[in-house]
Each structure stands twice: as structure tokens, then as C-alpha cells.
Amino acid sequence: MRVNTYLKIILSILLVSFISCGKSMTDPNNTTNTNNTIKIEYPIYLNYGSKGSTINSYEELESLWRNTVRNKTVYADNSCSDSAITGAFKDDANYYETKYESSNKARTVLVKCAAKELNGKNYIAGVYYDNYNQYNMPNDWRLIVIGDDGAEHAWYGGGRDRNNIPNENTAWTYYTFRFGYLKNY
């Protein structure tokens, strides 16, 4: 009788564990809606920062992204104070971090542009290769979107191979923290 009771308890615990562990371990408030980039068919309406536009070609898409981030300071928080500066996107639209190579070498390099859904809206995204993987993560690729409030939303994915450039089938995982904030976007 006692063994039967213990067996029922153990089975109940296993059942509860199975049900709760079957749920996604990612952010429960994830409003990114998709793990992949959007397959672009031109013309397409995309947002970039607090603006939006109908885009007719890849060249226009890339130009809008570059102009959104070019020569912009990145801040750790939305106060955008001088003490919160973490780095900057320079004229080449690459990101230079103050603590990486004293901002003399790009921390992340823009490889291409894409489109990504965030909070029910489609945005222009920059696909970056990270030259400094400080935590030895399994992915060196970053997908960056500048949201309506100037926040830098980011995803990681695509592995570590610099020559295997992510595409619309790449699975991206959303970072739950902001990479930074832009003052003028």
C-alpha cells in the first residue's frame, strides 16, 4: 500500500514537471512574434526608429538602415547622458564599443540588412558579425532593430562561421535586455 502511494506521488511529480517543462523557456512576455526575419517582397513598408517608409529595393533598405545608425552615439540607458555612453555607430554603420580596442576597431560589423517583426510592426534590421564574443557564446551573429523609442533590440543566432551569413531561415533568439539607446533616431 505504501509503495503504491509513493508511486502515485512520484508519477504526479513527473507529470507536473513534464507539463511545466514543456513550456518555452524563453521570455514569457516575448512580443517579437517570430524567430525568423521576414522574407522581403518589394515594395514593403518598414519602420526604422520612430519613422517608417515604403521601401522599393535592397539598396534603399540598406541606405535607410545606415542613415538611421550612422554616426550615432549608443547609451546604456534612455537617459542618454554622457556618463551612459557605451560606444557608437560610426560612419561605416559598424558599432565601436568604448571598452573594445579603445573604439579603434569595430566590435560588430554590418554585413547586410533584413526585416524583422517587433511588437506587431515590421522594422529594418541590421545583421552584424560580432568580432568580440566575450562569453564564448555559440553565436557570433546579431540582428539589431532600432525601436520607436530609440531602444536597440537585439537577437542572436546563425552560429559562429563568419562565411555562413544568416538568411530568412535563420532562427533568432531575442535578448531580454536592450543593447543600448540612441538619442536621435
UniProtKB/TrEMBL annotation:
Domain of life (superkingdom): Bacteria
Keyword line: Signal
Name used for this protein in its record: Uncharacterized protein
Organism: Brachyspira aalborgi
Signal peptide residue numbers: 1-22
